[in-house]
Design a protein that fits this description.
Blueprint: E1 3-7, E2 10-13, E3 18-25, E4 32-39, E5 46-51, E6 58-60, E7 68-73, E8 78-83, E9 92-100, E10 116-117, E11 121-126
Parallel strand pairs: 2-11
Antiparallel strand pairs: 1-3, 3-8, 4-5, 4-9, 5-6, 7-8, 9-10, 9-11
Length: about 130
C-alpha cells in the first residue's frame, strides 16, 4: 500500500494562491492514478482533481476548473495541486488519494476507486 503525506495548506485571502504537495512512500507512483478530494465542514468529501500515471490526462471538478492545476513528478513520487484565485468556498480539508492503474474516465472522480489516502491538510480562505 502507498503511504501519502500532504502539505502546503494554510490560511490565505480570497484571490490568493496555495500549492499543495502529496509525497508518497512505500511504492513508486508511476503506475498510480492520483486524486485530490476535499471535505468542507458539515459536507461530504468531494472530488477536486485527478491525474493519470503519466500526467498526460487530467480531470477537474467544475467548481475548480480553470483555477486549480494538478500535476505530478514521478521521479520525486510527488503530486501537486496548484490552487489559484481561491474563494472562501474552497475552504476544506484537502486529501490526496492513490489508486493502482487507471479506473476509467467514468470512475476517476469516485473516491470509492481510491485505496490509499493521506491524512489531509487544511486550507482556509478568508473573505
Amino acid at each position: 500500500q502507498v503511504q501519502l503525506v500532504e502539505s502546503g495548506g494554510g490560511l490565505v485571502q480570497a484571490g490568493g494562491s496555495l500549492r499543495l504537495s502529496c509525497v508518497a512512500s512505500g511504492r513508486t507512483l508511476s503506475s498510480y492514478t492520483m486524486g485530490w478530494f476535499r471535505q468542507a465542514p458539515g459536507k461530504e468529501r468531494e472530488f477536486v482533481a485527478a491525474i493519470n500515471w503519466s500526467g498526460g490526462s487530467t480531470y477537474y471538478a467544475d467548481s475548480v476548473k480553470g483555477r486549480f492545476t494538478i500535476s505530478r513528478d514521478n521521479a520525486k513520487n510527488t503530486v501537486y495541486l496548484q490552487m489559484d484565485s481561491l474563494k472562501p468556498e474552497d475552504t476544506a480539508v484537502y486529501y490526496c488519494a492513490a489508486r493502482y492503474l487507471f479506473p476509467g474516465r467514468s470512475r476517476v472522480t469516485s473516491q470509492a476507486q481510491y485505496d490509499s489516502w493521506g491524512q489531509g491538510t487544511q486550507v482556509t480562505v478568508s473573505s
